[in-house]
Amino acid sequence: MSRILLSLLSFFTVLAFAQNGELTLTSETIDHSQSSKVLFFEDKEKTLSLEELLALPDSDFFTVDLDIPNFDFTTSKYWVKFSVTNKTEEDYFILETARPISNKVILYELDCGIVSNSYKSGDDFAYAEKAIPHPKNLFPLFIEPGQTRDYVLEVESDGEVLIMEIRIFDKIDFFEDEYASQFSFGFYYGLMALVVIIYFFFFVLLKDKSFLYYVGYVLAQGLLQFSLDGFAFHIFFPSGGYIANHFVLFTAGVTIFVLLKYVHEFLHLKEKLPRMHKVFIGCQILVSLGVVLSLIPGITYVIAYPLINGISLISIVLSVVAIYILIFKGEKVDRFFAAAFTVLISGAIIFILGNFGIIGDAETAQTALKISSALEVAILSISMSNKYRVLQKEKEAAQEAALKSLEEKNALMDDINTKLEAQVKERTAEIEHQKEQLAESNKEILDSIHYAKRIQEAILPSAEHVRQLLPKSFVFYRPKDVVSGDFYFVEKTLPNHGNELVVFAAVDCTGHGVPGAFMSIVGSNFLNQTITEPKVNSTAQALDFLNAGVSHALRQDRELNDTTVRDGMDIALCGLDTKNNIVYFSGAKNPLYVIREGENEEALGFDIGEKNKPPLKDENSNLHLQEFKGDAHPIGAYVDDELKPFSLNKVELKKGDLLYVFSDGFPDQFGGESGKKYKYKTFKKFLLSIATKPMDEQKELLTKEFDRWKGDFDQLDDVLVMGVKID
Fold this sequence. Notes:
- The protein is of the alpha+beta class.
- It folds into three domains: 2-177, Immunoglobulin-like (Sandwich), CATH 2.60.40.2380; 208-396; 461-725, PPM-type phosphatase domain (Phosphatase 2c, domain 1).
- Helices cover 49% and strands 19% of the residues.
- It is built from 17 helices and 24 strands.
- The strands form six sheets. Strands 1, 2, 4, 6, 7 and 9 form a six-stranded mixed beta sheet that branches. Strands 12-24-21-17-19-18 form a six-stranded antiparallel beta sheet, covered by helices on one side.
- A hairpin with a 4-residue loop joins strand 15 and strand 16.
- The protein is elongated, with a radius of gyration of 48 Å.
- It starts with a helix and ends with a strand.
């Protein structure tokens, strides 16, 4: 029963092929397109199998009137059914169908309705899988003279224009025609390669961006044609697949993008046509969007085909419009440049409108683009040669003008040199005399500075004095210059409340060197006065007294003018009650650090107040560093036209506590491997790490740490660190 059904199916299939889609090979029909005689079926959902197709009635198929039909931008699968009767003496023919860039083309050879052979082509497959290894989609047809064979073509596209030419060649005639085609291909691509190489060297020589954009445009145009002719699939992407499918549309978008850049640069649209400049920028953005879409499979890729084709047409028209607007405005535009784009637009319009199926057939459209692009490149090369000649002339003229100017300058310089030689001899004697005077003056200045150092050292407390009042202490003191803007203060006083205090301070005056030294003398003088001043009975009152004295001495309490000195000082001032183990602290910008041992914050017993942060704990011990901040305003500064008072901090001490006051010279010093500041956080951690050492050893370790960090960097500022341990 099944054999009977199969025989009936084969009979009706042969009968259907005999009545519809019959092609006859004769000397008149061979080598000509016979697309108007075959049967087409559009499978929009791509779900139909070959067996289901063969079971369809002929009424479901359609025919076309064109020899080279264009099915526009499509994602459908098309089936083509036809039979071929051989009325020639040959038995081997070649079928050419679909453009080289088609995704999938499969030819089924039927024998009584059953597939006897199948052949693959298209860029979905590897190049080695093609039925005939050739950039075009070719299939072998083996038909004995007088024999009729049935065929079905399966053709699939993923969004590009699908062109379905059915052309059967005699094998020998096909390859003879190919030799002529290869010659034209060689001429076209040779021209493109030659232009790219020559004008790239022009760009290297002249550094003019229009040459670079021109080279990019010709290269992209050549790659586009290379893809349309099927050579990119053959040479670059023989494995087929994603890249082979997307390369044509990608190169088309890049070609238009670079063309817009080239025209924009060559015509100087930004300066000459600002509105057109904005339009060109908009087109470049749209083309870039199209290029991105062309790389994404699916609906975006399908949209990219008409988008890039439409923008391409608009862009070329805009280029021509921009050229003729400039000509109409009287601007000078190279005639070859204008002619080249006139030629290009004619070919591009035919090609793009042919892609949309509006005018001409596909073969004419593609030929028109290739011919117009070759002519355009040839004419543009003449235009770019003219530009090269103009640039060279401008360069030669500039060089000639520069040479003439140089000769005039040389003549002038000779005259000047003669006069200068006489003046030099005269001035040399004066300079030698001045040099001697400067050397003498310099010696006097250095002698004065060194004497100032002796004066400054005289006002500083001696080592014996410091050791007497603060037995367990150290002073690390390193001026940046001969004299310093930092100084330290250690004295004993008896305030009105009756408890004797040891007063010590670390003071940082504005600047360093001689200016800082002058300020240190002023500050030291007023600090000494606070010791005996009856109205000063606390560290806060001492800073208030110092603030008023410095401001008055530097004329800051008067109306500001050119004689007013706007300098001041930062200070950390401590009054140590050794009997009751209490330290009174007041600061102008500078803090007091107290290091104490304890299991936790509660055990430390610090009353830190609102403005001070919790203590910093040493990672390797139970030591904690508590920072007590000074006030934010310095000595010698008015706040809202008045002297702002300083606050008093009272800290109850324990045996073994360590107190540190300092200037900003150590934390602000640049150094280390990366040349950065030492910083206060690092300074705190280092003090914690050495806090258990004897005071003399602490000073030595601080000295070594400072030298290590500074390395080969210059000392940034004066450095002062004082440490005191509580018995």
